[in-house]
Each structure stands twice: as C-alpha cells, then as structure tokens.
Amino acid sequence: MAEARYAHHQALEREKARQRDASAWQSLAAHHLTRDLDDQWKPFFTVTRWTLGRIAETHLRTINFIG
C-alpha cells in the first residue's frame, strides 16, 4: 500500500506542475478529493489532501467536509 500511495503522490505532483491557473487547481482538487471519498480510493484521500495542500483545504471547506 505504501508504494501505491507514493505513486499516487508522484502522479499528483506531476499533475500539479502542469496546472498554471487557479481554476485548474480548483478543478484538480475537486476531481481528486471527490473521487478519493469513494470507498475504492479512500486509502488515498489523506495523500491527496496533503499533496494538494491549501487548495484541498479550501475545496473541503466549500463542500462543508468535516473530518
């Protein structure tokens, strides 16, 4: 599982590097965090949240996420 999480983190970092504007960042966060709340991706939620940082926290506040 650790290797899978590390690979997920690396993929997100590459995707982050390609994003240039704020709306793209918001879209990236919405896509990954929504997907990661699904049971299949739950093991990756914390990695996604940590990797996306402040934009993830902003999105989670927007959707009234508690957790």
How is the topology of this model organized?
Elements: H1 2-18, H2 22-36, H3 45-52, H4 54-62
Structure, described:
- There is one protein chain.
- The protein has 67 residues and is an all-alpha fold.
- The protein has one domain (2-62).
- The chain has 4 helices and no strands.
- The protein has helices spanning 2-18, 22-36, 45-52, 54-62.
- Helix 1 (2-18) runs parallel beside helix 3 and helix 2 (22-36) crosses helix 4 (54-62).
- The protein is globular, with a radius of gyration of 11 Å.
- The protein starts with a helix and ends in a 5-residue tail after the last helix.
- The mean pLDDT is 85.
Biggest beta sheet attributes: none
How many discrete domains? 1
Terminus-to-terminus distance = 22 Å
In total, the number of strands is: 0
Which range does the strand content fall in? under 5%
Q: How many helix segments?
A: 4
Uncertain parts: none
Radius of gyration: 11 Å
Instruction: Provide mean pLDDT, rounded.
Output: 85
**Helix-strand makeup class:** mainly alpha
Q: Give the overall shape.
A: globular
The secondary-structure element order is: HHHH
- State the helical fraction: over 70%
Short description, anyone?
The chain is mostly helical.
Give keywords.
67 residues
